[in-house]
Amino acid sequence: MKMRTAICASAIALAALPGRADDPWELDPEEDGQATRVHILPGQVQTGRDLQSGATPDQDWIWIVPLARHSYVARASGGPMWSANTFVAAKLERVGTGLAVLTAGTDEEMAGFRGHSVRWIAGPTSDHEYLRVTGPPGAQGAAPYTLEFHDTTYAIPRWNNAASQATIFLIQNNKPAPVTGSIFFYGASGNLVHTQALSVPANGLLVLPTGSIPQLAGQNGSAHVAHTGGRGALSGKAVALEPGTGFTFDTQMTPLQP
Protein backbone atom coordinates (compact mmCIF):
# COMPACT_ATOMS: atom_id res chain seq x y z
CA MET A 1 0.00 0.00 0.00
CA LYS A 2 2.83 2.39 0.85
CA MET A 3 4.54 1.62 -2.47
CA ARG A 4 1.34 2.37 -4.41
CA THR A 5 0.96 5.67 -2.54
CA ALA A 6 4.57 6.64 -3.37
CA ILE A 7 4.07 5.83 -7.04
CA CYS A 8 0.90 7.92 -7.19
CA ALA A 9 2.65 10.83 -5.48
CA SER A 10 5.52 10.66 -7.98
CA ALA A 11 3.09 10.61 -10.91
CA ILE A 12 1.27 13.68 -9.55
CA ALA A 13 4.58 15.52 -9.08
CA LEU A 14 5.69 14.76 -12.63
CA ALA A 15 2.35 15.84 -14.07
CA ALA A 16 2.66 19.17 -12.27
CA LEU A 17 5.96 20.07 -13.92
CA PRO A 18 5.55 23.07 -16.28
CA GLY A 19 6.44 22.61 -19.94
CA ARG A 20 7.19 18.93 -19.44
CA ALA A 21 7.22 16.88 -22.67
CA ASP A 22 6.34 13.20 -22.99
CA ASP A 23 9.71 12.64 -24.61
CA PRO A 24 11.55 9.29 -24.42
CA TRP A 25 14.87 11.17 -24.53
CA GLU A 26 14.09 13.11 -21.35
CA LEU A 27 14.65 11.28 -18.08
CA ASP A 28 13.92 14.00 -15.53
CA PRO A 29 12.99 17.71 -15.32
CA GLU A 30 16.63 18.75 -15.76
CA GLU A 31 16.51 17.65 -19.41
CA ASP A 32 14.51 20.81 -20.17
CA GLY A 33 17.43 23.05 -19.20
CA GLN A 34 21.17 23.62 -19.15
CA ALA A 35 21.75 20.73 -16.73
CA THR A 36 20.64 18.22 -19.38
CA ARG A 37 22.31 14.83 -19.57
CA VAL A 38 20.93 14.11 -23.04
CA HIS A 39 23.59 14.30 -25.73
CA ILE A 40 23.91 13.55 -29.43
CA LEU A 41 26.98 12.47 -31.41
CA PRO A 42 27.77 13.26 -35.06
CA GLY A 43 25.94 10.85 -37.34
CA GLN A 44 23.17 10.14 -34.84
CA VAL A 45 19.44 10.74 -35.37
CA GLN A 46 17.02 11.03 -32.45
CA THR A 47 13.47 10.16 -33.46
CA GLY A 48 10.37 10.43 -31.33
CA ARG A 49 11.37 13.66 -29.62
CA ASP A 50 8.41 15.72 -28.43
CA LEU A 51 7.55 19.30 -27.55
CA GLN A 52 4.64 19.53 -25.14
CA SER A 53 1.89 22.14 -25.44
CA GLY A 54 1.36 24.73 -22.75
CA ALA A 55 1.28 28.42 -21.93
CA THR A 56 5.09 28.36 -21.54
CA PRO A 57 6.87 26.97 -24.63
CA ASP A 58 8.58 23.67 -23.94
CA GLN A 59 12.35 23.49 -24.48
CA ASP A 60 14.62 20.55 -25.22
CA TRP A 61 18.34 20.96 -24.49
CA ILE A 62 20.84 18.56 -26.06
CA TRP A 63 24.53 18.49 -25.13
CA ILE A 64 27.14 18.42 -27.95
CA VAL A 65 30.97 18.56 -28.06
CA PRO A 66 32.13 19.91 -31.45
CA LEU A 67 35.74 19.23 -32.44
CA ALA A 68 37.99 22.20 -33.10
CA ARG A 69 37.84 23.55 -36.67
CA HIS A 70 35.25 21.00 -37.81
CA SER A 71 32.03 22.02 -39.54
CA TYR A 72 28.60 20.80 -38.48
CA VAL A 73 24.91 20.86 -39.33
CA ALA A 74 22.02 20.10 -36.97
CA ARG A 75 18.42 19.80 -38.13
CA ALA A 76 15.04 19.50 -36.42
CA SER A 77 12.11 18.58 -38.63
CA GLY A 78 8.67 17.00 -38.78
CA GLY A 79 5.13 18.17 -38.16
CA PRO A 80 3.35 21.48 -38.84
CA MET A 81 5.08 23.44 -36.07
CA TRP A 82 8.04 24.23 -38.36
CA SER A 83 5.98 26.40 -40.73
CA ALA A 84 8.30 28.92 -42.34
CA ASN A 85 8.07 32.68 -41.86
CA THR A 86 5.62 32.61 -38.99
CA PHE A 87 6.13 34.00 -35.48
CA VAL A 88 4.47 30.95 -33.90
CA ALA A 89 6.91 28.43 -35.37
CA ALA A 90 9.23 26.23 -33.31
CA LYS A 91 12.95 26.96 -33.54
CA LEU A 92 16.34 25.28 -33.28
CA GLU A 93 19.38 27.18 -31.99
CA ARG A 94 23.00 26.52 -31.11
CA VAL A 95 23.66 27.85 -27.61
CA GLY A 96 26.89 28.36 -25.66
CA THR A 97 27.51 27.54 -22.02
CA GLY A 98 26.96 31.22 -21.18
CA LEU A 99 23.44 30.89 -22.69
CA ALA A 100 24.22 33.18 -25.62
CA VAL A 101 22.78 32.08 -28.97
CA LEU A 102 25.81 31.21 -31.10
CA THR A 103 23.92 30.26 -34.27
CA ALA A 104 20.24 30.89 -34.97
CA GLY A 105 18.24 28.35 -36.94
CA THR A 106 17.07 28.99 -40.47
CA ASP A 107 14.07 27.58 -42.33
CA GLU A 108 14.79 24.56 -44.46
CA GLU A 109 12.65 22.30 -46.59
CA MET A 110 13.91 18.99 -47.96
CA ALA A 111 11.94 16.16 -49.57
CA GLY A 112 8.70 17.67 -48.32
CA PHE A 113 9.79 17.88 -44.66
CA ARG A 114 10.07 21.37 -43.27
CA GLY A 115 12.30 22.20 -40.32
CA HIS A 116 15.06 24.37 -38.90
CA SER A 117 18.79 23.85 -39.38
CA VAL A 118 21.94 25.38 -37.94
CA ARG A 119 25.31 25.22 -39.71
CA TRP A 120 28.60 26.39 -38.27
CA ILE A 121 32.37 25.94 -38.10
CA ALA A 122 33.75 25.25 -34.64
CA GLY A 123 36.42 27.49 -33.15
CA PRO A 124 40.07 26.66 -32.42
CA THR A 125 39.29 24.75 -29.22
CA SER A 126 36.88 21.94 -28.42
CA ASP A 127 34.25 22.76 -25.79
CA HIS A 128 30.74 21.56 -25.03
CA GLU A 129 27.73 23.48 -26.30
CA TYR A 130 24.00 22.89 -26.65
CA LEU A 131 21.35 22.45 -29.28
CA ARG A 132 18.14 24.03 -27.99
CA VAL A 133 14.74 23.30 -29.49
CA THR A 134 11.91 25.62 -28.41
CA GLY A 135 8.26 24.88 -29.13
CA PRO A 136 5.83 27.45 -30.49
CA PRO A 137 3.95 29.46 -27.83
CA GLY A 138 0.38 28.40 -27.18
CA ALA A 139 0.66 25.19 -29.20
CA GLN A 140 -2.03 22.61 -28.57
CA GLY A 141 -1.21 18.93 -28.29
CA ALA A 142 2.08 17.09 -28.57
CA ALA A 143 4.51 18.15 -31.28
CA PRO A 144 6.78 15.27 -32.34
CA TYR A 145 9.97 15.94 -34.28
CA THR A 146 13.27 14.36 -35.34
CA LEU A 147 16.70 15.75 -34.45
CA GLU A 148 19.84 14.94 -36.45
CA PHE A 149 23.45 16.05 -36.07
CA HIS A 150 26.26 15.66 -38.62
CA ASP A 151 29.95 16.47 -39.01
CA THR A 152 30.27 17.92 -42.54
CA THR A 153 34.09 18.30 -42.55
CA TYR A 154 36.12 16.90 -45.46
CA ALA A 155 39.66 15.51 -45.23
CA ILE A 156 42.44 15.75 -47.78
CA PRO A 157 45.06 13.25 -46.54
CA ARG A 158 47.99 14.62 -48.55
CA TRP A 159 49.32 17.82 -50.07
CA ASN A 160 52.96 18.32 -51.04
CA ASN A 161 54.81 21.45 -52.08
CA ALA A 162 58.27 20.10 -51.19
CA ALA A 163 61.11 19.03 -53.50
CA SER A 164 59.88 19.09 -57.10
CA GLN A 165 56.12 18.73 -56.47
CA ALA A 166 53.33 21.30 -56.28
CA THR A 167 49.73 20.58 -55.27
CA ILE A 168 46.51 22.03 -56.71
CA PHE A 169 43.17 21.69 -54.91
CA LEU A 170 40.05 21.19 -57.06
CA ILE A 171 36.88 21.70 -55.01
CA GLN A 172 33.43 21.48 -56.60
CA ASN A 173 30.21 22.94 -55.20
CA ASN A 174 27.36 20.46 -55.72
CA LYS A 175 24.61 22.83 -54.61
CA PRO A 176 22.76 25.72 -56.31
CA ALA A 177 23.93 28.20 -53.66
CA PRO A 178 27.40 29.58 -52.81
CA VAL A 179 29.41 27.72 -50.18
CA THR A 180 31.90 29.42 -47.88
CA GLY A 181 34.22 28.12 -45.19
CA SER A 182 37.90 27.53 -44.45
CA ILE A 183 40.65 25.14 -45.50
CA PHE A 184 42.89 24.23 -42.57
CA PHE A 185 46.37 23.12 -43.66
CA TYR A 186 48.27 20.93 -41.21
CA GLY A 187 51.96 20.10 -41.42
CA ALA A 188 53.34 16.56 -41.36
CA SER A 189 53.57 16.74 -37.55
CA GLY A 190 49.92 17.85 -37.20
CA ASN A 191 50.54 21.51 -36.47
CA LEU A 192 48.29 24.11 -38.11
CA VAL A 193 50.43 26.00 -40.65
CA HIS A 194 47.83 28.00 -42.56
CA THR A 195 44.10 28.80 -42.79
CA GLN A 196 42.77 29.62 -46.25
CA ALA A 197 39.35 31.19 -46.83
CA LEU A 198 37.04 29.03 -48.96
CA SER A 199 34.45 30.43 -51.37
CA VAL A 200 32.89 28.36 -54.15
CA PRO A 201 30.09 29.81 -56.32
CA ALA A 202 26.84 27.94 -56.87
CA ASN A 203 27.51 24.82 -58.96
CA GLY A 204 31.04 26.17 -59.38
CA LEU A 205 34.63 25.00 -59.09
CA LEU A 206 37.51 26.33 -56.99
CA VAL A 207 41.02 25.82 -58.38
CA LEU A 208 43.57 26.57 -55.65
CA PRO A 209 47.31 26.27 -56.43
CA THR A 210 48.60 25.71 -52.91
CA GLY A 211 52.18 26.30 -54.05
CA SER A 212 51.32 29.98 -54.51
CA ILE A 213 50.57 30.34 -50.78
CA PRO A 214 53.80 31.53 -49.07
CA GLN A 215 53.06 29.72 -45.77
CA LEU A 216 52.91 26.37 -47.62
CA ALA A 217 56.06 26.72 -49.69
CA GLY A 218 58.48 23.84 -49.19
CA GLN A 219 56.07 22.00 -46.88
CA ASN A 220 53.71 19.03 -46.97
CA GLY A 221 50.96 17.58 -44.83
CA SER A 222 47.19 17.13 -44.77
CA ALA A 223 44.13 19.40 -44.76
CA HIS A 224 40.57 19.69 -43.47
CA VAL A 225 37.87 21.53 -45.42
CA ALA A 226 35.21 23.04 -43.12
CA HIS A 227 32.18 24.78 -44.62
CA THR A 228 28.57 25.82 -44.08
CA GLY A 229 27.06 24.16 -47.14
CA GLY A 230 25.55 21.19 -45.32
CA ARG A 231 25.91 17.49 -46.07
CA GLY A 232 27.13 16.55 -49.52
CA ALA A 233 27.78 20.13 -50.55
CA LEU A 234 31.31 19.59 -51.83
CA SER A 235 33.48 17.09 -53.64
CA GLY A 236 37.03 17.36 -54.86
CA LYS A 237 40.63 16.22 -54.85
CA ALA A 238 44.22 17.36 -54.48
CA VAL A 239 46.49 16.90 -57.50
CA ALA A 240 50.24 16.81 -56.90
CA LEU A 241 52.16 17.75 -60.05
CA GLU A 242 55.68 16.54 -60.90
CA PRO A 243 56.75 18.96 -63.67
CA GLY A 244 60.00 17.16 -64.46
CA THR A 245 58.30 13.86 -65.33
CA GLY A 246 54.76 15.00 -66.11
CA PHE A 247 53.37 12.62 -63.49
CA THR A 248 50.36 13.58 -61.38
CA PHE A 249 49.21 12.08 -58.07
CA ASP A 250 45.54 12.41 -57.09
CA THR A 251 44.31 12.43 -53.49
CA GLN A 252 40.54 12.35 -53.05
CA MET A 253 38.73 14.72 -50.67
CA THR A 254 36.62 12.49 -48.41
CA PRO A 255 33.93 13.29 -45.82
CA LEU A 256 34.93 12.55 -42.23
CA GLN A 257 31.38 11.33 -41.65
CA PRO A 258 30.09 9.20 -44.57
- Count of extended strands: 18
Assign the CATH topology of the largest domain.
Jelly Rolls
Rough outline: elongated
Cα-atom radius of gyration? 23 Å
N/C terminus separation = 55 Å
Q: Spatial order of the strands in the main sheet?
A: 1-9-3-7-6
**How many helical elements?**
1
The pLDDT mean sits at 84
SSE pattern, N- to C-terminal: HEEEEEEEEEEEEEEEEEE
- Helix-strand category: mainly beta
In terms of quaternary structure, the protein is single chain
Name of the CATH class of the largest domain: Mainly Beta
The percent range for strand residues is over 45%
Largest beta-sheet details: 5 strands, antiparallel
The CATH architecture of the largest domain can be given as Sandwich
Low-confidence stretches: 1-21
* Helix amount: under 10%
Brief overview:
The strands form 4 sheets. A 5-stranded antiparallel sheet has the order 1-9-3-7-6, with no helix packed on it. It is built from 1 helix and 18 strands. The longest helix is centred in the N-terminal third of the chain and has 14 residues, at 2-15.
List the helices and strands and how they pair.
Elements: H1 2-15, E1 45-51, E2 59-64, E3 71-77, E4 91-95, E5 101-104, E6 106-110, E7 113-121, E8 129-134, E9 143-151, E10 154-160, E11 166-173, E12 179-187, E13 192-200, E14 205-209, E15 220-227, E16 234-242, E17 247-252, E18 254-255
Antiparallel strand pairs: 1-9, 2-8, 3-7, 3-9, 4-5, 4-8, 6-7, 10-15, 10-18, 11-14, 11-16, 12-13, 12-15, 16-17
